[in-house]
UniProtKB/TrEMBL annotation:
One of its GO terms (molecular function) is histone deacetylase activity. Belongs to the histone deacetylase family. This is Acetoin utilization protein AcuC. CDD domains: HDAC_AcuC_like (cd09994). Keywords: Acetoin catabolism. One of its GO terms (biological process) is acetoin catabolic process. Coiled coil: none annotated. Pfam families: Hist_deacetyl (PF00850). Pathway: Ketone degradation; acetoin degradation. It comes from Marinactinospora thermotolerans DSM 45154.
Amino acid sequence: MSCSLRVAWDEGLTAYNFGPQHPLAPVRVELTMALARELGVFDAPGVSFTGVEPADDKLLELVHDRHYIEAVKRAGVTLQPDDPYYLGTADNPVFPNMHDAAALISGASVAAARAVWAGEAQHAVNIAGGLHHAMPKHAWGFCVYNDAALAIAWLLEQGAKRVAYVDVDVHHGDGVQKVFYDDPRVLTISLHESPLTLFPGTGRPGEIGGPRAEGYAVNVALPAGTGDERWLRAFHAVVPPLLREFQPEVLVTQHGCDTHTLDPLANLTMSLDGQRLAYAELHRLAKETAGGRWVVLGGGGYELVQVVPRAWTHLLAEVTGAPLDPDTQTPQEWREFVQRRTGETAPLRMTDGRDPGHVPFEEGFDPADPVDQAIQETRRAVFPCHGIDPNL
């Protein structure tokens, strides 16, 4: 069934560009939007676009320190590094007009949140968003401003009492967790590769929230090598019970697709087909637990041609309520565009040829299995805080 969807979009969203050698390349967003258009995703009933404005200083200060904002502005003009704010590092190189580009992404995510909160659309998306690492006082992990945290902070400013944030990026959603660590109005759930093997080195099960919000930070730290079936087992064992108990007014989700086995920066082994099932489940949970109010953001993803465009086109199609058949062929026009734009050969179909399922965790805990160990650690750490028995 089709869903009303507001797409926050401006060509300027591709101006967030750390340079040709940096793994976070804006071409991934460009290729995604082109593929979605060619496949008719945006022609589904109820889809509309909205232009976006950059977040102004007042909005940015809902999350970020004003001295940091000024440092970002200076660095984007002088092109000089600013070490106390981690601007000019290998992860966060300085680039011209950096503040403007980052503020536009933040403005787009807030525009998506506004559309959902105002009832203009059931769902809204900023596919260029999801810069979840940025900290209140410094850049971090390719992220200058934390648009996900800003969208949530804006919702709280409007009077939202309960906002849930689910992050399926391979990297821990540390910046969002940091901002709301002591705020029980915000439930943050992050499924990610273990901090023992991947940046940013945080996101352990014992990180459960501050003294006033114990149980409202949730972390599932999965071992390197986790694939579709075990990832989906972990997701279903943790996310649905907590969302059902929390009953958010709005669900915000971050969809980094760097969990894919081809991603060059991480070590999980998911397929497009497993990722697609996660999108569908989050859509179902948005309807079940949040009255359909769903704000959807992009995130990481560094296999720029083979993975990101297909993964996020599936995501966009799911959000419209008209998911794509995984056997769909990629359009010839898009493949030619990929060749011209990147020099690479584009994939032919919208699937990796997998048909993943999972055995529910509730059917039996295997104490020798490292994924089950991770699930149980998380459930034991946070479920009792919400009155849920971790052993059921």
